């Protein structure tokens, strides 16, 4: 059985770690570099870094922060926000990230996925997919619409159709975020997670809504996700990564043991 991953999300605005609810009301909560180091030492399997206003502000990601985070951790590190060219993807990877996450730019120019996968490999290109529940329609038969620019711009794209198209273009992994559940701590959107996970042949990371370890278990079992993204519950010290992994292990899931620094 493949180990399920626990991934910590760092939303960054103006170089500061921040957190909101349903992509609104963000509060600054600390230094992303210090947070990345702490979560690495606490046993996170991966770190995801999002510059949450880069796309909406039509600017490039803060490479200096990426470089600083990469120098502090030694686990896979994915970066997204304002990445709209292959050249910028290269810059982010050279700054120390293992993966780049494409979201708004990929919707506007799907060929970016193909170009990135050809240049760096499918495993280095992640689709960031932010979805919002909408009434069923011929345009959105899944009942979920893709929203870009940090939750600001509805696209009319059906989330499942877009996920499948992105995979056909070369995406190696999908980070699936429910805007409706984001930051609520009421649990992941299991229907959305299961819908996408069961219909694509790449790993899906469940994102948005974790409030307790049980929610991760639900996403990784009923939701069929390969990994679960967490933020608020560790940012506010409600649970440690070790507690979360112990819970998942006790429930019968295979998880990687928390990393521990070697004693000097």
In short:
This protein is of the alpha/beta class.
Topology:
Elements: E1 5-13, E2 16-21, E3 24-30, H1 32-42, E4 46-51, H2 63-70, E5 77-80, H3 86-94, E6 99-102, H4 104-108, H5 111-120, E7 125-133, E8 144-148, E9 153-158, H6 159-169, E10 173-178, H7 190-197, E11 204-207, H8 213-221, E12 227-230, H9 232-235, H10 241-250
Helix pairs in contact: 8-10
Number of discrete helical segments:
10
Largest sheet: 8 strands, parallel, barrel
Content of β-strand: 25-35%
The amount of helix comes to 25-40%
Description:
This protein is α/β, with parallel strands linked by helices and 264 residues long. It has one domain (5-250): Aldolase class I (TIM Barrel, Alpha-Beta Barrel), CATH 3.20.20.70. Helices cover 32% and strands 27% of the residues. Strand 8 and strand 9 form a beta hairpin.
